[in-house]
Structure formats: C-alpha cells, structure tokens
Amino acid sequence: MTPDSPGDAPFWNYRDLLIFALLAIPCLVASALLSRGLSMLLPQVGVSKAWIGMLLFYGLWFGALYVLLHIGYRRPFWQSLGWNYPRVGKAFAVVGGPGLAIVVGLLGTALRTPMIDTPFRKLVQDPLSLVMFGVFSTIIGPVCEELAFRGFLMPLLVRSFGPWVGIFGAALPFALLHGDQYSWTWQYVVLVAVAGVVFGWVRYSTGSTMCSALMHSTYNATFYAAFVFSGYKF
Prior knowledge:
Blueprint: H1 14-22, H2 24-41, H3 48-72, H4 77-80, H5 90-110, H6 119-122, H7 127-161, H8 163-177, H9 186-206, H10 209-228
C-alpha cells in the first residue's frame, strides 16, 4: 500500500478471505435468530428488530475476523486493517464526502436513475428507527464496510494485481453487496461502484482505512440529511 500501511500487511491470504466471506452466512443466520428471539421476549422492539439484527451480524462477523487476525496470526486487528490516524487527507475526506454525493447525484440524473422504494424506508417508522437509521448509515455501516472492503480485501488485490485493479476490484463486490437494496437497478449499482472507487483511492493514497471511512461517513450523511429534510412522514 503506502508507507503508512502496517509492516508487511497484508499478511493474510485468499484462503482467509474465503473463510471470512463464508462466515457471513452463519453470522447472518445467528443474528436473525437472536433478533427474532429478542423480539419475542420484548414485543415492543417492533421494527427495531431489523436494526438489532444488523448490529448483531456486524458484531459476529467482525468478531470472527478479529479471531482470524489477532488470535490466529497474533497481529493487531485495527492496525492490520489500516485503521490509523491519517497524516494527510482528513480535511479532504470530510469535505469530499458531500462533494462526492453531489457528483454521484448528478451522475444519477445523467443516467436517468429511477426512483425506487428501498427496504430501509420500510424500517423507518418512528423517530427512534430514524435515529437508528442515521447511526447505521453514518457510523456503523461506513466503518464496517471500509474495514471489510478497503481494509481486508483491497490490500490483497493490490498486492496481487497492482493498485488500480485492487481499487476497482474491491469496488465491484462493494457495489454488488448493495444491489439488492436497490432492486438490482443497474444505475444504482454503477453509482455505488463509483463511490467505492473513490473510497478505495482515498484508502490507497492516505494508507488509512480510517480516512476512507470518514469520507464514506460524510458521503452517507449527506444523503441521510437529504432524506430527513425531504419531508419524510412516518
């Protein structure tokens, strides 16, 4: 990566990547069962069950990655995934997130992207769920997605194929992951891929996954603010 990257990272291999990817399935099942059990014990949880399930999934999945890196390889988890305070690029990440959101919005207009009702809208039914949506979209989601795609996957691809293949190669599954949220409308997949390429470039140029997560956060925050102030009714 860059001089800011830790030691000989990535020290993991494609077998580890496959294990991490496959572990998503049991983690999804376990989190769904746990959140369902919680909703049965506490019916007042309501629509928040879905948000709790997502939180449990991230906890289980990244807990498995922690075991793989910290216990399996005896390496520091956060530093190994490039989570370090960037010496440069912080201001750009903060300002660049909203700027990227504007560019993506304009590109979406040029591509005649249709308006669709995303699943997340159905999960926002009261003020509490609106707050939880904000926490997931601006904090939890960006941190976890950047750790997975730009912290874990991208360094492997960069080592094997070079920076640009690594950046684009990590952006593709990142975009496909979001495809179901947008009913697999190709314009949305392209737009998410564009954002993923920019996040990857920030990660590579700064050597910091924290920096790409910061840009991802302010990017999502821009769309979240637009959603809140668009006059959405519960």
